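Appendix B, example 12.
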Amino acid sequence: MRSSAPTISRQFFIAVVALVVVVPWVVDRAAVAQYPSFTDEAVERGVQYIVTDGAFGFPGQYGCGVALVDLDGDGDEDIIGTGATGGQIALFANNGAGLFTNVTSSSGLLAHTKVSGVVAADYDADGDLDLFFTRWLQPAVLYRNEGALSFVQATAQAGLSGISGAGAGCSFGDFDQDGDLDLAIAIRTATNSNQMRNRFYRNNGNGTFTEIAAALGVDDAGASFQCILQDLDRDGDPDLYVSNDKGTAALPNRYFRNTGGAFVFEPQNGACIVIDSMGLFAGDLDMNGFVDLYCTNLPDGHAFLWTSDAQMYQRREDEADIDGAATGWGTVMFDADNDADQDLFACSMSPVPDYLWLTEAGFPLVERQVQCTIGDLEDSYCVAIGDIDRDGDLDLLMQSRTVNLRLFVNEVPKGKNGVSLQILGAGKNTHAVGALVDVTVSGRTALREVLAGSCYKSQSSYIVHAGLDDALTADQVVVRWPRVGALREERTLTGVPTGMVLPVYPPSMIGDRSRDGRVDAADYAACVACLNTPFVAACAAFDANGDCQIDETDVAAVTTRMLDLSRDGEIGAADLALLLASWGRPDADFTGDKIVDGADIYLLISFW
């Protein structure tokens, strides 16, 4: 049931928390061992960045945004901070062990006042993640990633100039199924009399965008704080949900279902609620196979929109006991303790602590922020999640005001394992934004989606994580890539191991570890080297049958892919013709000698 508003003083609350933190021996150690433990290690790990901007109300912008995402492609999560005095955007590079170095001075990222949101996505399809920043009554800024943690401004070149409303949370996704990433932007219309409405930009496929919000019917005039492009009904394309502050009957939260590249507003499906909606997250909290919605609110209660069919929604925050009693902002659903169910975190304003609700026996969830030693006494706004030290559990990066960024490093109970998956994309959607991932262990399935912008004004890791409890492997992982035209790729993996970040290749890329568009001699040699060896992440490209081991069946499949130059699924005359057309050149070399000659013809004919 809903908690009553707090009556304790701020000083009393500080004293209680200090007692818990400074005098830990008064806590039952046996009880603590069953919960995850979060420790703020930002300064110790090299992250020093004090946020002074983003206050509640004018002239603030209600938080500024953080990102915890791999920006240099080296397999670990880097940090973006915004909101410091003077506006300098900060970049902290991860060394792979969760230790960070401030590389802002060489990054090309500049000072921008009133930053109000950040999202990372590969909009130009060059293989690395670019950064888009909204600002509060100031022009938004796009930075193109040039590699090696170097960025250049590309706002005007991309056609994103003129976004000067009260910008807030935004999201990328391929709404029109053409393979590239489009951009939805939430704008808090009527802030300080600025009437700019929500924006929606179609990606033209050449590094530029065209604004089409009015044509799509999604140019809302609400006080929007966050929007998400997410496949809420799991049909292969992203739907659009908008979180509106100061909701009214005319401007409630908005649910737009994607029907073939057109958005249809569904005002009667139960999700278009009227509250002071701020933060927003979509995930399957009760693990019934359908994606729910959670919206933070004022202290009269957050909203949990539950569904059993992805068509109609019901409010069940009282039953789940996750309504809280604080003005809330950023929120995430994740498996905090790796016990194979879903938990919930929500940022709060002082004097109420940030909430961490654990699922212990279905509904209701249980408040465990004290036992898990997470949260702070400041006004907390933005949060992102990711595994900074690659130990198999999820850590939290949190932005509160007037203090240093918080980096809560997670230590889950002993014996609780997690699986980590890097979903790779084919074509222009290089990071597989919108891919659906279902992880099953012991009869329970966790639903996940690869998201570009998923929480209040912030960006979490692209690595998909799911807790496995005490299991060492996931029984099954099913990945469904977003639809591109009529094509929707899908793979099923079995016996998926913990202890690594496993890259998952779409069927069209099996064997192509270099991701250069073809299976060549180098790929083949690497495949053979993986044969009958302990399975590691570097061998995942060659796992044709998805059983997380490389055997003769996989080598045969990769060989076929190398020799099948015509891409018709078999080796024959068409491939021989293409090979002969490459005679004397290296472009279709099978043997690794960088020239097509008789040895290549012999190899092809031997597999005919």
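Helices lie at 10-22, 29-32, 213-216, 317-320, 521-530, 552-563, 573-581, 598-606. The CA atoms of residues 333 and 344 lie 5 Å apart.
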